Amino acid sequence: MATQDVVTVDNRKAGSVELPAAVFETRVKTDLLHAEVRRQLAKRRAGTHSTKNRHTVSGGGIKPWRQKGTGRARQGSIRSPQWAGGGVVFGPVPRSYEHSLPKKVRRAALCSALSLRREEGAITVVDEISLDAFRTKRVREILRSLSLEGERVLIVIDAADEKLERSARNLPGVGVLRVAGLNVYDVLRHAKLVLTKGAVAAIETRLGAGAGEAQ
Questions:
Q1: Domains of the chain, first to last
Q2: Helices and strands, counts by H and E, the chain
Q3: Residue 212: what pLDDT?
Q4: Radius of gyration of the chain (CA)
Q5: What's the chain's average pLDDT?
Q6: Closest Cα partner for 26 from 178, 164, 207?
Q7: What is the mean pLDDT of residues 164-169?
Q8: Helix (H), strand (E) at residue 107
Q9: Helix (H) / strand (E) containing 7
């Protein structure tokens, strides 16, 4: 179990915390990370693309010319695929791209992502982050004091905090997630993680039991 320093929002040491080995010290498996990111992105696809086949294109109810005697190829409808404005053969239709992965695999993938960030030294644990008002400037000051200004930072909190979530919304590259919504894609697309002390405990509760079953 790794020990991580806990700092205040002013970057002063405020103790230490044990990072659970079952979550932050698992073997990093890139195949699990790839599979989970594919699943998340596939689920976000709208799938609203649509084309019309020869049966749904309007018009073409009459045979263009008689079957024989014209010297031209026989045709049954001007909405056949070979005609300009005709239907599309095997075109895309509305569909869902969502697919599933076993819960153990998804849990192991998230543990791999968190372990990767710990190996990189990209995790900062703060005792708490609280704002007395909706102030984006204050969030920027906190990141500056933690030497994270200008980085792609994901702040993970244990419970809803509307002031923090809305205040960080306008900062490019900065995201705020509750532990319940923590996911592989957001962990990987942010180079740095800032976890509150309460978030560490909540992550252990969410992922600690059975986290290593798919390793």
A1: 2-45+100-207 (3.40.1370.10), 46-96 (no CATH)
A2: 7, 6
A3: 43
A4: 27
A5: 93
A6: 207
A7: 95
A8: helix 103-119
A9: strand 2-7
What one-character-per-residue DSSP string does 20-62 give? Answer: PHHHHSSPP-HHHHHHHHHHHHHHH---------TTTSS---S
| Cβ-based neighbours of 210, under 8 Å, separated by 6 or more | 104, 107
DSSP β-bridge partners for residue 193: 123, 154
* Three-point CA angle 139, 192, 138, nearest 5°: 5
What's the burial of 101, exposed, middle or buried (CB within 10 Å: 0-12/13-18/19+)?
middle
CA distance 211 to 119: 18
Pairing of strands 13-19, 153-157: unpaired
**Single pTM value for the model:** 0.84
The answer to whether 205 touches 25, Cβ cutoff 8 Å, is no
CA–CA distance, 40 with 21 (Å, rounded to integer): 26
